[in-house]
Amino acid sequence: MYKKRGLLIVLSGPSGVGKGTVRKELFTQPDTNYEYSISMTTRSPREGEVDGVDYFFKSRDEFERLLEEGKLLEYAEYVGNYYGTPLDYVNETLEAGRDVFLEIEVVGAAQVRAKVPDGLFIFLAPPSLSELEERLIGRGTEGADVIASRIAKAREELEMMNLYDYVVENDEVSNACDRINAIVTAEHCRRERVEKRYLTMLEGE
Ligand SMILES: Nc1ncnc2c1ncn2[C@@H]1O[C@H](COP(=O)(O)OP(=O)(O)OP(=O)(O)O)[C@@H](O)[C@H]1O
Ligand SMILES: Nc1nc2c(ncn2[C@@H]2O[C@H](COP(=O)(O)O)[C@@H](O)[C@H]2O)c(=O)[nH]1
Q1: 16 labelled as ligand-binding?
Q2: Which transformation does this protein catalyse, written as a reaction (predicted)?
């Protein structure tokens, strides 16, 4: 019997572009219907970050064990720390017909694309590299060395923009949210049309 699966939405882009800010804003909107997948990381918590809310904070040994056990949908080592998406949570939520929202960097997003080709891949782009640097400096959570590494990485990450279904500029947070909501709504409509067509064909057999 045909069972409708949820949509996997992947929001990616360079560090500091505003992925977290946009995602948090999306999740405060009353009609948002996605489930956020909380990532695992070996990075230390920043001030105010809570285990099980912002991330599942793990030691390197714990993370490597999860990796060996095949418990991650994707993972990447990013500027000295591991980050990864729990596989079971994503699968179970999609199977239950609910949409899952991932906020991850580009190497992991490419792994998800290979495993879940029918996902929706959105690249969040900064208005400019200098604005990106200003946002990282303004956030005040990393020192100058880490910011320099993240900016160097951002140059490589921006080259991967063309591998995404959509590029959304994060000029203003509310604009970026509106654009993402419009993209997700259009994708749902497209899927419904395809699904209807498929079911009509089955009925005719
Ligand atoms: N549209 C925007 N205009 C101005 N500042 C913004 C905008 N979006 C986010 N910011 C600011 O930029 C900084 C970085 O944002 P945020 O932490 O959400 O980025 P991120 O992409 O999630 O970073 P990381 O990948 O490192 O977690 C924050 O200080 C945030 O308030
Ligand atoms: N590949 C993955 N990347 C992830 C995941 N969770 C977060 N991230 C990305 O890592 C960088 C750094 O994050 P920060 O919290 O230290 O600033 C950033 O681009 C995140 O989007 C994940 O599960 N997999």
Answers
A1: yes
A2: GMP + ATP = GDP + ADP
